[in-house]
Structures are given as structure tokens and as C-alpha cells.
Write a structure and sequence with these properties.
Elements (H helix, E strand, L loop, with lengths): L5 E3 L5 E3 H6 L1 H12 L6 H8 L1 H13 L9 E5 L5 E5 L2 H19 L15 H18 L6 E6 L3 H4 L2 H9 L5 H12 L15 H21 L4 E5 L2 E6 L2 H19 L8 E4 L4 E3 L2 E3 L4 E3 L1 H15 L5 H15 L5 H20 L10
Antiparallel strand pairs: 1-2, 3-4, 5-7, 5-8, 6-7, 9-10, 10-11
Helix pairs in contact: 2-4, 2-5, 5-10, 8-9, 8-10, 10-11, 12-13, 12-14, 13-14
């Protein structure tokens, strides 16, 4: 594999990777991406006030390798499951976007087609569509032969990523020493996690690093094991085969490969199941003829409505949650369910409005 130390920009200039990262066009693009849908946040407004001066500082710190990541802000999210998020200030997000602007196209062409997380024209709905089409095609042409599936995910994936392994994978592709030094700083700045292990869920670069790390697994499963129907969304993956014994052998090989090559373990909930009973993946329960919203997703949105009724979240937050959930549910066979949830939310808002004292504001 040819390692990359230079790229040619759209004007025909030959730049080292770190020069390309610090190029003014790159940092301007990074600023635009970082502020998207956040332009009125305080840290964005402060940066924007002296934008030209700040972007020049970004360029100089990247070129001089003097950039030092800031301290993380820690908070938790609870949907779809409890996770600790580590967020950096806006300045650092501009730096990370600038890095991604250059690295992402280099690695993108090396990823397998059926890797769906954090990639342009991919995503969870595309992953769901692929699984559904595979199940439909199998039932159509082999109606009397059962299909089986490995449904697996990596145990504590982001906090288990080994820095040395990640750096080695990146160095198989990148050879610009300055770019590597900058990347290493980002990788090693892992907050409260043990030294040498883990990347923060909230970092933009973590999405790319997570795909780079498991690209080795993707190619092992596709090329060495020869699994034709394999797809991955971040650390969740599905493998289909009509041969259950073959899946058992593959699963044992995958567990060994993860342990020896990537220092990872599969989640103990990993299973081999019969596809006709439905496959949970990327938020949906998939069968050959249809897909449904997972029951835990329905429970979560109902809990959100209850939180609003108890005054724990605002009306605006409820409406955002309903819009997001109905958008997700709209990719499943869920028309009546969506109508029911929308009515539940509307009724809750009417009750809250009716309970207000006369003359109170309209927003809850």
C-alpha cells in the first residue's frame, strides 16, 4: 500500500498533508462546518467576532505543531443509552474539522462499501435498507431455506481503542511526519481515560478514527473469511449466511482476531439467530417483508412525553424529540404508531396548557 505524504490541491499545488490541513481554504471550510446550526452559541460568537485573527492562529499552531487540545467538558446523554460525552471548545472543533477535511478523503476510498457509519451517502438508514434488501432477496429466491445471522457489537468500543494499534493503522496510510505528530496529539488527549486507551465519543476525529480502527476487521471478514453479506454501523455488525455452522466458525475466528489484532472483545450479548424471527439493527427490527421500530425506541419516546408532563423538559425540547423520533420511525412500517405518538404528545401539551394559571405564558 502506497503511503501518502503529499496531496495536490484544486489549484495544482503540491502540499504536504500538514500544509493542506493548515491551508486557509481548509480552515475556512472547517470554521463553516463547525458553526453549522450553532452560530448563535456563545463560544461561536466569541470566535466569530475575531474570525480572521483566530483562523490565522489555527493555521500557525497547526503548521508550527504548537496546537495543544483544550480541556474537555463532560456531560451525559441517556438516549438511546447512557453515555459520557466529552466535548471540546469551538476553537478545537475548528482544528478537528481542518484535520478531517484532509484525512477523510484519503481513508474514505480505502473503506469497504458496506461500512455505514459517519460516511457521506451512508448512515443508519442506508444500513437498514441494505439488511432489509438482503433478507427480502433471500426469502424471494430461497423461500424454504432459513437464513441465519451473527448480530454482534464491540464491548465498550470507544473506550477500548488502543492508541498504539490506532497509530499503527494510520501510519500504514499516512507518512507526513508533521501530520502524524498532530494526529498523535489528538489521539493521546483522551481526558479521564487510562493512558494509551480510548478516544472520546464527542470528538469529530473520533468518528474517523473509529472507522479506521475497524477497517482491519472489515477486510478480515470480507476478504479472509469470505463473508459476502456483511455490514457494519460503527461497532455494530451483521453477517448473514444460510450455513449456521459456518457462522459459528466465523464468530470464533472473529473473536480471536479482535483479541489478538485489535485488543477488543465482543459484547457478551452477541448471538447467532434465525433471521425469520427478526434482526435488531440500527434502531429497527428487520424481517424480509417489513421493518418495525424497536420496542425500546417506543418506550423512550413515551418516557420523553412523561418527562414533559412532569415539567422535566420544555415544550420546545419535547417538540424536537417528537420530530426526531417521527423522522426515524418514518423509515419503518409505522404509520399508525407515529399518529398515536403525535397524538399523545399533543394531548400532553394541551393538558399542560390547560393547567396553567390564567395569564401565564404560552411556552412550557
Amino acid at each position: 500500500m502506497k503511503r501518502i505524504g503529499h496531496i495536490t490541491d484544486k489549484n495544482g499545488r503540491r502540499l504536504t498533508l500538514v500544509e493542506a490541513i493548515a491551508d486557509y481554504g481548509s480552515v475556512q471550510k472547517a470554521y463553516n462546518k463547525a458553526r453549522k446550526c450553532k452560530r448563535y452559541r456563545r463560544d461561536v460568537l466569541i470566535f466569530t467576532k475575531d474570525k480572521e485573527e483566530k483562523l490565522e492562529r489555527v493555521r500557525n499552531e497547526i503548521l508550527g505543531l504548537s496546537y495543544e487540545p483544550s480541556e474537555y467538558r463532560y456531560f451525559k446523554v441517556y438516549e438511546p443509552k447512557e453515555r459520557q460525552i466529552m466535548a471540546l471548545p469551538f476553537y478545537d472543533r475548528v482544528v478537528q474539522h481542518a484535520i478531517n477535511n484532509v484525512l477523510e478523503p484519503i481513508f474514505e476510498k480505502r473503506f469497504i462499501f458496506h461500512s455505514y457509519a459517519c460516511r457521506k451517502n451512508k448512515g443508519m438508514h442506508a444500513a437498514s435498507d441494505t439488511l432489509k434488501s438482503w433478507l427480502y432477496e433471500w426469502q424471494r429466491f430461497h423461500p424454504d431455506t432459513p437464513m441465519y445471522a451473527i448480530k454482534a457489537d464491540i464491548h465498550h468500543y470507544f473506550q477500548s481503542i488502543n492508541h498504539d494499534v490506532l497509530k499503527a493503522e494510520i501510519r500504514k496510510v499516512i507518512k507526513d511526519a508533521k501530520a502524524l505528530a498532530l494526529i498523535d496529539k489528538i489521539i493521546e488527549h483522551n481526558g479521564q481515560m487510562p493512558d494509551g486507551t480510548g478516544i472520546p465519543v464527542g470528538n469529530l476525529t473520533s468518528q474517523l478514527f473509529a472507522n479506521i480502527y475497524l477497517d482491519k476487521l472489515d477486510k478480515y471478514i470480507k476478504h479472509t473469511l469470505g463473508a459476502e453479506k456483511y455490514e457494519r454501523y460503527m461497532d455494530d455488525f451483521i453477517i448473514l449466511s444460510p450455513d449456521k455452522e459456518e457462522l459459528r466458525r466465523w464468530l470464533a475466528d472473529i473473536e480471536r482476531f479482535l483479541r489478538e489484532e485489535l485488543i477488543l472483545e465482543l459484547n457478551p450479548k452477541t448471538v447467532i439467530l434465525c433471521a425469520k424471527n427478526g434482526i435488531d439493527f440500527v434502531g429497527y427490527k428487520h424481517r424480509a417483508t417489513h421493518r418495525k421500530v424497536r420496542p425500546d425506541s417506543i418506550k423512550r419516546i413515551k418516557r420523553t412525553i412523561k418527562k414533559y408532563e412532569r415539567g422535566e423538559i420544555t415544550r420546545e425540547n419535547l417538540q424536537k424529540s417528537i420530530a426526531s423520533w417521527t423522522g426515524h420511525a418514518g423509515h419503518a412500517d409505522s404509520l399508525h404508531l407515529r399518529k398515536k405518538i403525535i397524538k399523545m404528545a399533543a394531548d400532553a401539551q394541551e393538558r399542560a396548557q390547560a393547567a396553567k394559571p390564567a395569564g401565564a405564558g404560552v411556552s412550557t
